[in-house]
Design a protein that fits this description.
Blueprint lengths: L2 H15 L14 H4 L4 H15 L14 H15 L4
Helix pairs in contact: 1-3, 1-4
Length: about 90
Amino acid sequence: MTKEECKKLVLDIIADIAPDEDLSNIKPDVRLRDQLQLDSMDFLDIVMELRKRHGIEVPEADYIHLASLDSCGEYLTPKFVAAGVKA
């Protein structure tokens, strides 16, 4: 699992929970909530989907690491690798 593959999995989740969002121009270094119409419930849905789909647990204290696609890649890639998730 690479960071790019990890980011793709996060985008897949966002596409499912916010199907009206245009994800084609997401800037990886900019906060997702500044680019998309995501509210706090949508953000929690992302965390829940990570757990449900991939068995990835994200403690509340670590939510800050999911702010941008780049930070998601940095934080989640080792977790995906440890969980044996394939892209």
